[in-house]
């Protein structure tokens, strides 16, 4: 369950939507999150009351089309998967929003299962398998979650796909 924050200089609703779709589609494709695992904060900065500051760090020339993408997700994905994610985000941001890939800065902050609450003041990833199951939850989802977590997976696909977001 990644939480994504996207910041861009003056961006109307169409550009913000395109940026959000690009990042979400890239996450679905590269880190295997379910399509309904969507948690984003999209912010347009007007350049005067709020702005983005940037430089040509590492000799990457940026301009006012710059986009900052901050992704918070559970730890466990190898560097090659993250590299594919960064690449795909840049490709889709260019395709959907017309932003040059050099203007796409992506950061990842990783955390652990205890660091997430999907609502109701519960840390759902820490609940026992039996307590994960809700009457409206697809049968078997709790068992799949337990199996995924025991196998060292992140559990994102099972939990988000199981309807916890809507049911809790």
Automatic annotation (TrEMBL):
It comes from the Bacteria. Transmembrane segments: none annotated. It holds the Pfam family Tautomerase_2. PANTHER family: TAUTOMERASE YOLI-RELATED. This is Tautomerase family protein. It comes from Kribbella turkmenica.
């Amino acid at each position: 369950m990644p939480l994504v924050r996207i910041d861009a200089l003056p961006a109307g609703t169409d550009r913000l939507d395109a940026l959000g779709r690009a990042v979400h589609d890239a996450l679905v494709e590269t880190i295997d999150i379910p399509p309904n695992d969507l948690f984003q904060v999209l912010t347009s900065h007007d350049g005067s009351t709020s702005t983005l500051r940037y430089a040509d760090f590492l000799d990457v020339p940026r301009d006012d089309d710059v986009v900052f993408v901050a992704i918070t997700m559970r730890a466990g994905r190898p560097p090659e998967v993250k590299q594919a994610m960064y690449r795909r985000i840049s490709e889709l941001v260019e395709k959907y929003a017309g932003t040059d890939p050099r203007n796409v800065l992506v950061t990842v902050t990783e955390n652990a299962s205890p660091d997430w609450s999907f609502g109701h003041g519960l840390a759902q990833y820490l609940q026992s398998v039996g307590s994960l199951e809700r009457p409206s939850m697809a049968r078997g989802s709790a068992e799949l979650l337990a199996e995924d977590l025991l196998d060292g997976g992140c559990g994102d696909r099972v939990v988000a796909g199981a309807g916890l977001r809507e049911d809790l």
